[in-house]
Amino acid sequence: MIAAWDDLRIFLILAREGNLTAAARKLDVSHPTVARRIKALEEAIGARLFDRLPDRFGLTVAGEALMADAQAMEQAAESIHRRSSGLVADTTKGTVRISAGEAMISFLALHLPYLRRGLKCVEFELSENHMPANLSRREADLMIREQVPDLADIVTRRLGRVSYAVYGHAQLVAGTSATREAMRRMPWAGFDEAHNYMPGQKWVLDLLGGPRPIARVNNWMILHDVVRAGAGLAVLPCYLGDGDPDLRRLGGVLDDVATDQWLLVHRDLRTLSRVRLVMDAVVELFQEQRVALEGRRKNAVSIVDHPRKQAASRA
Predict the structure, then answer these.
(1) Three-state SS across the chain?
(2) Which of 41, 68, 266, 280 has its CA 20 to 30 A from that of 120?
(3) Exposed, middle or buried: residue 194 (CB in 10 Å: 0-12, 13-18, 19+)?
(4) Residues 89 and 27: beta-carbon distance below 8 Å
(5) In this structure, what are the phi and psi dihedrals at residue 314, rounded to the nearest 5 degrees?
(6) Which residues, including other chains, have CB under 8 Å from residue 103's CB and lie 6 or more apart?
């Protein structure tokens, strides 16, 4: 008997998750439903697929043999799902979901009128996530990342470069020079240990030489709020820091922290009209905002002077 795809999908998820509770949560079904469907699949195939261990479900030899075929069916189902998006009559209408980190998603949200100026028929979904979306499973149509994952069937395009610099609230940094010695004496905010891979965090830890930032977060926008509150200095993307009138930049851009931004799309979707149009709009936005993204705004402050020094220079 040929197993139904729904049962094979449950089999795949249980094999990946390792236990019924996690699989049920992933599938949004009940715990008994997963157990019942797996038992029915084993009866239909005539072989035991899992060893019921105390702490997990482990694949048997038969389960491992079925795994490859089930994965091939999954890939075919995902391909059909992706390609079905292009079978509607007017493919310029519909939804395009873009996935990126919170700071970049905020940047896109602030410039959404620019993105939509010629795309009134397209609905935008902006999805914030530190982890890459699975483009094969249509978790997103487009993704913006600082690194290009080594994945098959993914097409990439370089959007541009994002620069980072040190920022602090105007009152906190008044009279502070942009030397490393002066900045080292200031309070700092940064990311928690689990997010030390974020751009600029190694630079901060090297500067401090041992002590950790006094405030640690897991989100760029929260870090921005901490700096705006005057709690400490932080490394922020220039498009985030320069655009805030309450903040001042100390020093120039950090050349060794700058990151490239890449636009990713599955090759099955890149020719879909609405996806292609949004891709073009995102590329144009990055070109139009290149000065801000690279931290080259004319009003950016490189060294914060003491108010008395500023008054003396005006005199």
Answers:
(1) CCCCHHHHHHHHHHHHHCCHHHHHHHHCCCHHHHHHHHHHHHHHHCCCCEEECCCCEEECHHHHHHHHHHHHHHHHHHHHHHHHCCCCCCCCCEEEEEEECHHHHHHHHHCHHHHHCCCCCEEEEEEECCCCCCHHHCCCCEEEECCCCCCCCEEEEEEEEECEEEEEEHHHHCCCCCCHHHHHCCCEEEECHHHCCCCCHHHHHHHHCCCCCCEEECCHHHHHHHHHCCCCEEEEEHHHHCCCCCEEEECCCCCCCCEEEEEEEECCCCCCHHHHHHHHHHHHHHHHCHHHHCCCCCCCCCCCCCHHHHHHHHC
(2) 266
(3) exposed
(4) no
(5) -70, -35
(6) 220, 221, 224, 237, 240
pLDDT single digits (tens) 259-303:
999 999 988 888 888 999 999 999 999 999 999 999 987 544 443
| CA–CA distances in Å: residue 43 to residues 62, 90, 231, 260 | 13, 45, 62, 52
What six digits make up the tokens of 175?
A: 């009279």
Distances from the Cα of 199 to the Cα of 142, 164, 211, 259, 313, angstroms: 22, 8, 19, 8, 36
The model carries a pTM of 0.69
Sheet holding 142-145, edge to edge: 122-128, 94-100, 142-145, 259-266, 154-162
Cα separation, 305 vs 37, whole angstroms: 69
Burial class (CB in 10 A: 0-12, 13-18, 19+), 61: exposed
Alpha-carbon span 173 to 170, nearest angstrom: 6
Which tokens hold the place of 284?
């144009």
What is the per-residue pLDDT across 101-159, written as a single tens digit (0 to 9) for each?
Answer: 999 999 999 999 999 998 988 999 999 998 888 887 778 999 999 988 777 778 999 99
CA–CA separation, 72 vs 75, rounded Å? 5
